[in-house]
Amino acid sequence: MFFRRRSVPVYFGSVRFFKNMILLCVIVLIMVPSIFAFRYKAISEQERQYIELLETEAQMREFEQLSAETVAQSDFVPEHPAYQDLYPDFYAPQPLNATERTEKTIYLTFDDGPSERTDEILKILKDKDVKATFFVIGQSDEADLQRMRDIVAAGHTIGMHSYTHNYTQIYSSVEAYLEDMYQIFVQIRETTGETPTVFRFPGGSINAYNRGIYRELIAEMLRRGFVPCDWNLSGGDATGTPAPATEIIRSVVGPAADVTRGFVLMHDAQAKKTTVEALSIVIDRLTELGFTFEKLTPQTMPVLYGYQG
Fold first, then answer.
1. 284 is annotated as an active-site residue
2. For this structure, is 165 an active site residue?
3. Alpha-carbon distance 219 to 201, whole Å?
4. Which of 144, 156, 267, 268 is catalytic?
């Protein structure tokens, strides 16, 4: 007697197997983002602020590691590149030590001056008993050179922005950038008697013009002891057409509620009349939010854009 062996359906590799695998993948794709979303929502606001603080401090440590003690060992700067020998007097008068961090503080900064608006800005700052920082560009007019001296005499910080403010020219190479910055360094020092220690890259530390060399630029300026500073609040007054004063006020004051230290970007140029119109109200509104005002110093931990791949 012959018995017919009962056939066992093959599961692995069958159509049913692949259907189930596809279904499982779909479930995973749906559930994983949901789990992460739920986890993120569960993080308290205090925890979120702590995470942001850690990210900021970690970012600053990354920049500090590019100081004089470590820059030669970095993986993107060749050992002792030739540009390090340029301008042997182009150094900050103190070693890099930007670690001071004061909560609920606003740092008002004005780029591109001095100009006719500088006098009006200085008067408002004096009336409000507020100190600020002016990142200046190269000047040839004696009236503007006097305004540089007025900035320092009033107790504000004068910092380097660039000499020519010509993005294409200054970001064409590390050597070109150092040449331009050295010119404004010398002009500030000889005009005011003050040796500048802080600076701002035109367009910020990472921009469309310096993407190929921004790491070398930051590393070299840090090696020389200078402190860069970007911004986390902006008046939005950089455009050619002056922004309305109400828009400048809204652009600064609205987002200020989300920062513990605010680095405000505004501009000092002849056309920036609405910036002057907005300044008093900006100061009053930020004061109402509980902020105090300080100028940048070499000890101030700056806000900086994160490195990009």
1. no
2. no
3. 13
4. 267
